[in-house]
């Protein structure tokens, strides 16, 4: 398969979701972590209709629902690329999968999904059809999935771009995307839910005025009102950058850009939360073929880059690290 996704369920458990080789369907393995030891469970078939399910890279996504439950969403190429979801529960390294749920009967690409943080029953999913990005709420009871109605967020995106979403609270989330023309400005807006009804109530703001074409974005939650986005800034900038996004009312307000790599290489960016004030950004340098991590602290709208490029042993929160 072309895609591999990870749903982090807790500090000691995650699930890897992927398409099996040779048209063998969507599969998963549950993993547990103890110290620096990872235990991997047996492979579980989540869905195998016969034929290639994931025909295009980035058409598979996975996310957490609760500490013992996750979900995968994908465009099913055996069924006109309709948006499809499967919920699963995890006990140790054992996975139990629910039935397939088709949540949209239009062809979809580049899905994103994230839990409404703390809800344990609702997930926001985003996806692109042609030049329109949609948002939709999925509700999970046990391993049974149901869905609300989709809403259009923007009709000026690129089918190949990565739409992403991030749950902030049990009822609010962010959606990020890029425009399909000009300098391809990156946009962010807040959405909210009541049950399975989604409302795009927030203003639409720029997180970048110039982005790289079809480049994934790293996006992570710091708190109920703060997120970090890591991205490649394109025309006129050519750097990997990070920004804090603060939500005030219904407005998602990006802060000042922090340069991570100059010049950036336009690929392989991501980030993850460390604690309530710190995120870790991961990106690939152009100067050498290594992956570099940079720690970013957040205090109000102040950004401090704590690490620098170079080889070091990752022994505490202030040290840089890299992997060949």
- With helices defined by DSSP (H or I, 4 residues minimum), what is the helix count? 0
Summarize model confidence as the mean pLDDT: 83
Radius of gyration: 19 Å
Shape: globular
User: How many beta-strand elements?
Assistant: 30
N-end to C-end Cα span: 25 Å
Strand content: over 45%
Q: Output the structural class.
A: mainly beta
Q: Major sheet, described briefly?
A: 5 strands, antiparallel
Assembly state (oligomeric): single chain
Helix content: under 10%
Question: Can you describe this structure?
Answer:
This protein is an all-beta fold and about 325 residues long. The chain has no helices and 30 strands. The strands form 6 sheets. Strands 1, 2, 3, 4 and 5 form a 5-stranded antiparallel sheet that branches. Strands 6, 7, 8, 9 and 10 form a 5-stranded antiparallel sheet that branches. Strands 11, 12, 13, 14 and 15 form a 5-stranded antiparallel sheet that branches. It is globular and about 45 Å long. The chain starts with a strand and ends with a strand. The C terminus is likely disordered.
Write a concise keyword list for the protein shown above.
about 325 residues, mainly beta, 5-stranded antiparallel sheet, disordered C terminus
